[in-house]
């Protein structure tokens, strides 16, 4: 077991270096100018493409550029704007609940701690990690989305399926200073090379490190 753990850590170190060279500018694809916008966009991104979210938030942020105005907006108006992101009723309910708590509990500002963020409606660890990492530069955890889950599994960095357990494995393997950017790079790699249905193994810079290479 110790040998397996050490070999996994060695492989993770090599993967980190290659991804850093290949994707030096990797960052979130969600358009935002502040923590509030990133929080809203991330809530909307559940089971929806970033491209669609960016189209929707362009309209939403024009009408509700901050938590105060989102709190004041009728839920029906929010539903209409975000309808194309899917699950729009649940998402609108989460956004309205989050805006209410931001205004009433946090003076209209997005809190900068995991515990406080997890109190917001519709916010789980993934969303909280996105906001803490990309808006505040705080490495509290590792964002595990569908790309990170798929690619980290294929690379043999985790055998887990549960996102919280995958996150724990990655946090254990990676130095803290890599936690934020590693997710971005794995997402970029997942979108461009290690695709869900047909991974481009012949074009992959990680092919010789990958136990799943086809």
Structural description of this entry:
This protein has 214 residues and is mainly α. It has 2 domains: 2-27 and 141-209, Orthogonal Bundle (Endonuclease Iii, domain 2); 35-135, Orthogonal Bundle (Endonuclease III, domain 1), CATH 1.10.340.30. 59% of the residues lie in helices and 0% in strands.
Radius of gyration computed on alpha carbons: 18 Å
Query: What is the overall number of helices?
Result: 11
Instruction: Decide which structural class fits the backbone.
Output: mainly alpha
**What composes the largest sheet?**
none
Number of domains: 2
Taking the alpha carbons of the first and last residues, their distance comes to 26 Å
Explain briefly what this protein structure is.
With 214 residues, the protein is mostly helical. The protein has eleven helices and no strands.
Outline the secondary-structure elements.
Elements: H1 2-22, H2 35-44, H3 50-63, H4 67-72, H5 75-82, H6 88-105, H7 114-117, H8 125-135, H9 146-154, H10 163-173, H11 179-192
Helix pairs in contact: 2-3, 2-8, 5-6, 9-11
From the structure above, extract its key features:
Endonuclease Iii, domain 2, Endonuclease III, domain 1, 214 residues, 2 domains
């Amino acid at each position: 077991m110790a040998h397996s753990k050490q070999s996994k850590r060695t492989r993770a170190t090599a993967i980190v270096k290659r991804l850093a060279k290949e994707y030096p500018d990797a960052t979130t694809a969600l358009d935002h100018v502040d923590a509030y916008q990133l929080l809203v966009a991330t809530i909307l991104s559940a089971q929806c493409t970033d491209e669609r979210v960016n189209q929707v938030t362009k309209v939403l942020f024009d009408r509700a550029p901050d938590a105060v105005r989102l709190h004041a907006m009728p839920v029906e108006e929010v539903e209409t704007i975000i309808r194309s992101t899917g699950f729009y009723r649940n998402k609108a309910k989460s956004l309205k609940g989050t805006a209410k708590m931001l205004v009433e509990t946090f003076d209209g500002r997005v809190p900068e701690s995991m515990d406080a963020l997890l109190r917001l409606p519709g916010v789980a660890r993934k969303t909280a990690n996105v906001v803490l990492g990309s808006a505040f530069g705080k490495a509290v955890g590792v964002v595990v989305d569908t790309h990170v889950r798929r690619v980290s599994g294929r690379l043999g960095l985790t055998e887990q399926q549960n996102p919280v357990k995958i996150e724990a494995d990655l946090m254990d393997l990676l130095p803290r200073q890599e936690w934020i950017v590693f997710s971005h790079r794995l997402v970029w790699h997942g979108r461009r090379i290690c695709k869900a249905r047909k991974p481009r193994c012949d074009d992959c810079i990680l092919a010789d490190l990958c136990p799943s290479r086809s």
